[in-house]
Amino acid sequence: MTDQVLASSFRDPSGFLFHDDGVLYRQVNQTYAPEMDRLTESGLYDRLVDLGLLVSHQPADVPAPRPDICYQVIRPQQLAFISYPYEWCFSQLKDAALATLEIEKQALECGMSLKDASAYNIQFRNGRPILIDTLSFETYREGEPWVAYRQFCQHFLAPLALMAYVDVRLGQLARIHIDGVPLDLASKLLPLKSHLKFTIQSHIHLHAKSQKRHADEAIDRSRLRPVSAFAFRALIDSLESAVRNLEWNPGGTDWADYYQFTNYDRAAFASKQDTVSDMLARVQPKTVWDLGANTGRFSQIASEMGCQTLAFDIDPSAVEACYRRVRDEKVGRLLPLLSDLTNPTPSQGWAHDERSSLAGRGPADCVMALALVHHLAISNNVPLPMVANYLRQLGDNLIIEFVPKGDSQVDKLLSTREDIFDQYTTEGFEAALGAVFEIIDRVPVQDSQRTLYLMKKKVRR
Amino acid sequence: MKGTRHLLVVTALAGVVYGLWSRPVYAYLDPGTGSYLIQMLIAAVVGVGFAVKLYWSRIKGWLNRGEPEEAEVSDDD
What ipTM does this complex have? Predict the structure, then answer.
């Protein structure tokens, strides 16, 4: 037996996650036994699983890593990939927030309540948010306020308000502030007009003031007043209104309308789709990472072939457009995520181990890098051998497009700067990539100067 | 100022729901004293609006009782 406790589940003493032979399990500790039983007996577990809001689990027959404190070991439904809130677009974070509140409403109806409201407890499965922490519930005690209120405001409401009112890129604050955006910071950054909105005024601005005023002050129980069940429900309703009223719509950025401005005509686009489809069929990957996926048109080819596919893009508008399509058209197995490949998600949190880097969550069976290399090599000055080495870390197979000088997209990148890229040629590209990948096939893209390559990672001796 | 007005309203309405409460709290999260206190005030204030909202929807339901039921608004947005 090889067990490995996950570095991400150490805060809550109710239990923890561990791996055994590549399968994820959760040990539920004895201290949590009454709540775990109540989750089932109250009907909440069945209700949430039926609604697709909570991962299902089964009792597991594997040895507990800490038998001395173990109540039971469960095997949760396995997810293909764990993503983080700073990798989500606006609507993903908004839907995750609404899912959290819906779960809380369902829990209240069953006499329970969420004891945390961490955005990291939500994941996306087939385009829908789902709670992955089965141990997030506790018995609701009438009179008590919501213990997760501060966390909900920091993890969801503050970043959503900043993205909606100020700039969508402020969603990246979640990457620095791992327990959510501090409310005083959010309050300082939000514009004056946000003070006129009752929900934002109360849950962020007044909340921040109250935090400042009572900083380092112990809770004086004589000052606590009961929050009736009705007022509690009203609070959740108010948070829901706050979230629902926040809107952000893509537009006016670099990539979202990229397909209207490329070198492709309809026939060339279809030819590229056919080649990508053919190459994927030859590799038969289970997991595909499409890097620089734009709105995920090519990623969708992979997901429709049955591959668990991630569509990464640097542009929040493109990721937003892709997510809305996935959600509204119920596209399965496709998860759009924000990623700047020139500065990919690092491993971070406690001991650099709490949240994994992008590469740490791989490798994928197949990486797609279509119309990407020129951005890395020319816009970001990354030498081609370094591009090849990073792609090798991320995937075992590679479908990659080379866009040579002379293509309008490359010429556009070179139009504002000196061409210092002598090695940026077909020969230079094949030599750099060929050093770490075996080139299986090369197919020209019809009516363009571009070429698609199928490559397989060389095994290092 | 709008902010001050809200604060006054919040404080005044909180007085309405004044009561005794000293139940111990068990939680692994630190709820934060400021967050706890403001939550109690906000919950009291929004409770009034929530009551109005619920009763209004009941009145609407009563007025529409002869008509076919409207489909529930989906959360899929």
Answer: 0.84
